[in-house]
Amino acid sequence: MSQRNLFYAQSGGVTPVINASAAGVIETARAHPKHFGKVLAGQNGIVGALKEELIDTSRESRRAIEGLMTTPGGAFGSCRYKLKGFDENRAEYERLIEVFRAHNIAYFLYNGGGDSADTCLKVSQISEQMGYPIQAIHVPKTIDNDLPLTDNCPGFGSVAKYVAISTREAALDIESMCATSTKVFILEVMGRHAGWIAGASALAANERGDAPHIILFPEIAFDEERFLSKVAQCVDRHGYCVVVASEGTSTADGRLLSDQGERDAFGHAQLGGLAPLLAGMVKDKLGYKHHWAVADYLQRAARHIASQTDVDQAFALGKAAVELALEGANAVMPIVERRSTKPYRWTIGTAPLHRVANREKKMPRRFISKDGFGVTAAGRSYFEPLIAGEAYPDYQKGMPRYTRLKKVLVPRRCKAWSD
User: Fold this and answer.
1) Ordered structural domains, the chain, with CATH
2) Coil, strand or helix: which one is 339?
């Protein structure tokens, strides 16, 4: 069999461990030199393929690739770019095939979330329609933890760990000051339609009455009166109240509280500003002194406190994607299958992309407490193994040492592309 090159790219919002998946892909492909030629990484995701900006990962040392295991961000650059339907913009697909053909690329591995799964599925379909064979395999990634069929998503466990730790530490701060100062603290976390990240903050609590006292989920309709009543009840009982709110919190009619009226490249509502909005309610109606914070990029960039489980799974899924390519698989995604929770055991399985693309997995109601403001024992049992273990990076002069790649581009063989 002649050696064909493999294209790998990162897409969407990055995670603390997306580069571990990249390391899994590259190291596994390098271990099969008789089957694979080079791993060419798209500079800035699928845009790198369209612009023919392909990074030659063979120019990166073994040590540099190993360093990806402990480096946050997207080492090759990511993007928010959604391919239109084949009939809407045939030129994009013709361009992809042109670049893939020019660089002898037979494997397309796309590392991203639900929208990226859709892109990967479309690429698998064009290979049939345009007569150029491409094996397209999706490498799962999303801190939102909302991809279907997989037990959990790489990136989520580390973000869950960061949010739970931040909630516990902030709660100790507020508790120590509440007698004469701040009584309410609100932390806004990511989670557009699913409350997995907010729910994981429940791990901050060791005993009944510990923070977080209120968790706001997209799955539970927000009621201002019930919310404020619960805040007042917590302050009366504990002296303070810690709230963790998912950015996707919405009212019974589906209105997102934090919708800014703008849309991103995927057509999603641009969210933000929920924490100050909630703080305003607390101030106007209850008069409590308050503080708020938005985890934002901090939660998805915090590699210094990553979950070892998360790192292991991210690498394993990247490795599995290459192994699926070896087996001739197409239009599939490797997934995490939970075999048991206590003790925690997991294996790698496979899911068809048509059952993954553009679908979201929300938190099941049985994970959310009866009053809608907390997490059940079943929810805690689900979350706990995912944050287990520490995977600290190396430190130098008190700071974590992260890897930067050379990112040498291969010479262009096609004409310049204009969208």
Assistant:
1) 4-141+306-359+391-400 (3.40.50.450), 156-303+372-387 (3.40.50.460)
2) strand
Q: Give me the phi and psi of 297, to 5 degrees please.
A: -65, -25
Q: Does this model's pTM top 0.70?
A: yes
Average pLDDT over residues 152-168: 98
Q: Which of 115, 144, 151, 310 is catalytic?
A: 144
- The Cα–Cα gap between 106 and 329 comes to 12
pLDDT surpassing 90 at residue 59:
yes
Report the distance separating Cα 67 and Cα 146, nearest Å: 28
pLDDT tens, position by position, 91-106 = 999 999 999 999 999 9
User: Shortest CA distance to 191 belongs to which of 246, 147, 146, 153?
Assistant: 246
Q: Are strands 214-216 and 395-396 parallel, antiparallel or unpaired?
A: unpaired
Rounded to an integer, what distance in angstroms lies between the CA atom of residue 308 and that of residue 311? Answer: 5
Residue 214: phi and psi, rounded to 5, are -135, 130
Q: At 324, list the tokens.
A: 């699926």
Could you give the CA distance from residue 25 to residue 333 in angstroms, rounded to a whole number? Answer: 13
Is 400 in contact with 303 (CB distance < 8 Å)? yes
Distance of CA 249 to the CA centre of its chain: 19
Regarding beta strands 135-140 and 105-112, do their DSSP bridges make them parallel or antiparallel, or are they unpaired?
parallel
Q: Can 146 be counted among the known catalytic residues?
A: no
d(CA 142, CA 378): 22
